[in-house]
Amino acid sequence: MTRRRVRTLTRDHPGLNPYLRHRGIPAETPVYWYPDGQLIRYTGSGSAQHIPVRTSSLLAWMVQHEPEQLWHQWRTHLREQRVLVEHTSINPVHPLHVGSMRGTVIGSTLAELFRSGGADVQTRYFVNDLGRQLHILQRALTAARRDSIPTELRFDEAIGVLYAYANMALAARTADLARLISAHPWLSAVVDIHRPLPDGKPASDVVEAMVAAAVSDMGLLGAKIDIIDRETDLSVDPATLVIALTDRCDVVRINGTTCLRLPGGLVPLQRGDGSLLYFSRDVANTHRRRPHAWSAMLHVIGAEQTLLQSALRKAVPDAPLEHIAVGKVSCAGRRYSARQNRLTTIGDLLRDGGLRRVHELTLAMALHRRTLPIDVAHLDTTRPLRTVLTAAHTVHLASNTPDQQLLRQLLIKILVTPAVLARDVERRTIHGTAQHLMRLSHRYTAATRAVPVPDEISAWFHHTQTRLATFLGITLDALV
After folding, report:
1. Could you give the residue ranges of the DSSP H alpha helices within 1-64?
2. What was the pLDDT predicted at 7?
3. pLDDT of residue 240
4. Percent of the chain having pLDDT more than 90?
5. If 0-12 CB within 10 Å is exposed, 13-18 middle and 19+ buried, where does residue 457 land?
6. Where is the Arginyl-tRNA synthetase catalytic core domain (predicted)?
7. What angle do CA 219, 423, 313 make, to 5 degrees?
8. What's the rounded Cα separation, in Å, for the pair 365 and 367?
9. What's the whole-number average pLDDT of the chain?
């Protein structure tokens, strides 16, 4: 039995593709490319119009134009939008690690895609400097002799160990404590593990140092933070906030705790002693961000936070909030845990393979749909970046049997790039952009080995590939 070959279609956006505009195709017309180079456009009546496109026509047009022209329309495509993006926002009790890194990759790339399309974008980082986790760390810091921490250790990683120690000591988990001390022998010289932890004292200097370390690590992933919000800067009247939520939401008291009741469950607002919980401070922070000023407020956060994000939209209905859900990250079936000090940090990645190792994991994560879980123990982290770098530094090795189809597919892949970005922005994902970078790189390597590729087309490819990689936080020049 002969298998019928399935011809895949590539959707394009005539308003963003300069070649299609050159052909006079209206901006809003649905257009699809066949692999053989034939264009299919649909008219207002729904009928399909077949437009043959020769490789020579594509090639001649691209040779006569500069690569930057590909981005001319895209640069203003989103100019009417004002977008706030909050991503990562890890608690200042542990370093940035692979588990939270996924949110950084997705959030920062989304921000760059919006910004490249002309949107007014602002990235935010919300520091939880009032929560229970920080209070636990403060107890360990009060007991610690910080001068005894080895100077060769990264400060944020040492603080992460102290935070895990405090959790284990308060829960009397002796086996875990023994494991932690065995992994970090210096801990015994810094804290007296046989004495109870004292009450904690404020440690604003440590909080600021932890935030600075996280922001620095995010910079290695291409993430830029415009504004840092702090819980301590909020001015919240608990009574006023709870009354306001009671007026518009279903609020109940359960064992003295005031909760917001949703179909998916209960979200605590206020303890019995009158103090507010994190969700209430998140509500206050959302109000402080002036919701009416934004077209969209994107919260890039774990999928397990869906209930809290639904509650936030219920509590602040006038805010254009969107939950960009991120699937969990595990390692060999075990989730990363700051309490257990079971983490793979950015420092670990740098020690393992330098910046290249960081970028390998960045691209490998971006290639997966954002809601799907990832187990890094089973993640191919080397081949994707190697494919991109091979294309970036390939030389022309044309064969004696030129393949015009490979060249045509390369030209089409380059020209549909803005349409790919537009779909990712619309879908609030980066998966398509990462996949396009991979396919474009593969097409170029294949084409250069099968057909003479004009220098002008090589310039188009390198210009496009570099920009795609930059959106993902990958600096190709640093990886030569």
Report:
1. 18-22, 55-63
2. 53
3. 86
4. 79
5. buried
6. 79-353
7. 75
8. 5
9. 92
List the single range of 159-163, 258-262, 340-344, 394-398 with lowest mean pLDDT: 394-398
Residue 4 has pLDDT above 50, yes or no: no
Contact 109, 428 (CB under 8 A): no
Residue 142 three-state SS:
helix
Q: Where are the alpha helices (DSSP H) in 316-382?
A: 346-366
**Structure confidence at residue 219 as a pLDDT band (50, 70, 90):** very high
Helix 431-448 × helix 404-415 angle, to 10°? 150
Cα(398)–Cα(310) distance, integer angstroms? 56
Closest of 128, 168, 90, 65 to residue 415, by C-alpha: 65
Per-residue confidence band for 228, with pLDDT thresholds at 50, 70 and 90: very high
| Beta strands 39-42; 48-51: pairing state | antiparallel
Residue 105 vs residues 261, 286, 373: alpha-carbon distances, Å:
33, 23, 15
In 10 A of CB 479, how many CB atoms? 17
Task: State the chain's maximal CA–CA distance in angstroms.
Answer: 81
Give the pLDDT score at 266: 95
* 329-350 burial: b if 16+ Cβ within 10 Å, else e: bbbeeeebebbbbebbbbbebb
238, pLDDT greater than 90: no
Q: Tell me which amino acid residue 283 is.
A: V
**pLDDT at site 465:** 97
**φ, ψ (nearest 5 deg) of residue 285:** -65, -35
> Exposed, middle or buried: residue 23 (CB in 10 Å: 0-12, 13-18, 19+)?
middle
* pLDDT category of residue 5 using cuts at 50, 70 and 90: very low
DSSP 210-222: HHHHHHHHHHHTT
Burial (CB count within 10 angstroms: exposed 0-12, middle 13-18, buried 19+), residue 247: exposed
Apex 73 CA angle, 68 and 76, nearest 5: 115
The separation between the first and the last C-alpha atoms of the chain, rounded to the nearest angstrom, is 48
User: Tokens 């084409």 identify what position?
Assistant: 447
Highest mean pLDDT among 36-40, 165-169, 474-478: 165-169
